[in-house]
Structures are given as C-alpha cells and as structure tokens.
Write a structure and sequence with these properties.
- The chain is an alpha/beta fold.
- The chain has 14 helices and 12 strands.
- A 6-stranded mixed sheet has the order 2-4-1-5-6-7, with helices on both faces. Strands 3-9-8 form a 3-stranded mixed sheet. A 3-stranded antiparallel sheet has the order 11-10-12.
- Helix 1 packs parallel to helix 8 and helix 4 runs antiparallel to helix 5.
Length: 365
Amino acid sequence: MGFKCGIVGLPNVGKSTLFNALTQTAAAQAANYPFCTIEPNVGEVAVPEPRLMKLAEIAGSKEIIPARMNFVDIAGLVRGASKGEGLGNQFLATIREVDAVAYVLRCFEDGDVTHVEGRVDPIADFETVETELMLADMDSLEKRRAGVEKKAKSGEKEAKAQLVLIDLALDQLREGNPARNADVPEEAKKDWKMLQLLTAKPVLMIANVDEESAAAGNEHSEKVMERAQQEGAPAVVISAKIEAELALLEPDERAEYLGELGLEEPGLNRMIHTGYQLLGLQTYFTVGPKEARAWTIREGWTAPRAAGVIHGDFEKGFIRAETISYDDYVAVGGEQPAKDAGKMRLEGKEYIVREGDVMHFRFNA
C-alpha cells in the first residue's frame, strides 16, 4: 500500500520540475507556459528506507524491494478552475482520487519564469487554489443535496445521515473554511470520506525556493511555514531545481552535492517522511535470503491485517506472527541470533504492529 499524493498549484510554480525530479523521469513537461501538463502524470517512486539496506546486508538477501508511493502531477489550476477556466474540471476530478494534496507554492524570484498573476506571493497562491477547491466542493454538494433530501424525506435512514453531513460540509465551505476543518463525529467519518470532498483531504505545503535558499529558506518560505502552522498542516522547504539536478547524479555524487549545499537529505526523503506522518503510515519488514522487503501499513493495524498487505490468504488463515524489533535484529545480527537471545516474540491476532517490526507470518493455506 503506500500512498498517492496529488501535486497541485498555480502554473509555473515548479510543480512539474518537482515531479520530474521526484520520479526521475521527463514524463511531465516543465515548460515555461501555463497548462504544459495536459494529462495528469503519475509517477511511482521508491520510499527511501536505510533500515531496509541494513537488514538485507545482515540476512544476505539477494533482492531488496522498497515500499512504493505515487505522485500525481496535476495541471496548474487558475482562478476560475472550479467553473472550468483553464483546464480546471478534468483535473479537479483527478484530485478526488488521491490520499493527500501537496500544495506547491512559489517562493522564488525569477524574471525568466512568468507567474500567471504577475507576482510572487505564495500565500495568495495557496488561497487561490484552496478557494477553487472549496468552490468545486460546494458545487458538487449542492448538485447532490436535492436528490439526497428527497430520499431523506421519504424516510430513508442512510439518506438522512448523509444529508446531515452534506449540510455540515456546506456550512463550513460557505463560511470560507475547507471541509477538513469540520468537526465530524467519529462514527460518521467513514461516510464523510465517501463524500469525496477535495478540501477534506490532508494537506502538505511545499515551499519551492531558489537554490541559494534550499538550506535556510527565505522570506517567502517563512510565510508558508507560518500559514502551515495556522492550518495545522506540515510544510517542507524544497528547491525543485536542486532536486532535478540530484536526480541525475550517482549516489556518491549526490551525497557530496548535498553536503556542499548544507543539506542532510534530498527533498524527496523529507516529502515522503512528512507524507507518512500526515497519513498515519508506518513500515514493517520481511527479511530472508531471497529478499528483504518493506511494507507500508496504517498505524494501529493488527498483525493479520498487516499480513493481508502481502496476500489476502495471509490474513484469512493467520495463525501467528514471529516478530523481532528492528533494533534487536540489528543488534544481535539476524533472525537465528535473535531467536537464540530470546528476542523473537510470537504474536497473535490482537497484536498491533509496531514501526520497524521484522515479521514472519504463519498461516493456514
């Protein structure tokens, strides 16, 4: 499982440059004119995971298989996109399919790269895109409401519950608040998600800065950080240009270049780690001579449910999970030494998988 993150923003803020860098492809055109991204581009990338390399080294694994995640590069929205301006409508539909939305905000000055509204103001950019998504949500809900209300009046229980949620969302949106700020009862959250509201999705803010500001940020990115704090959203400072250059380098050269820039890791790593935290995701491992593999699950999942990510039969026929913590596996030097040292645990159906568990599942076929 992994997660699918939609990259949105106004034209010419660096979305496609960032997408190209993250996926290390030239699939999205990063040209200097609006709407150069004509079709939503989906790129699958490996989740950076140093622990997986260490486990593979200890176990002598022939193959290393990281977890994967998807980035969706969605064409630049403009004011009026909710009403079909630019290429709005077809891309708003694409956003509904993602797990989280990353707002790329221009935090760099460059006279050679035209800003669609003629100025550099990342907060205004954020508000423009956010407003268009809220208007699209309102339009969608208002179109649905009449039909749901009719069913609710006829006594249909599900329709009554849905109508309450639609009105809750409309009240929020009409007050200028995104749907994610609504106070939704715990028991209604599953139905709330079924409304597929664009502004109900978790948000990540990306301040795209110039190369000189990649390490410390600048006055524009500081404004993004302040706004992100107000929104209760995580934010990451990235230089899309640097990420594009890093994508072309060999690992050794990449590390040297990062050091020269005063950066500890690429922006990709920080984006993914922030995205994992945003969506409550975590990693467990399966390790053996054949392969070492990372698996993505949600926090709070039980051992059988985690096993089901590998194969449905693992979940259905689950017996137990032989479990070693990552730290113990590395400290004692592998599976057999962990067994000998009493560091392997036999966990049952109620066990909540922990971050970094190394697991082997026993099941009835």
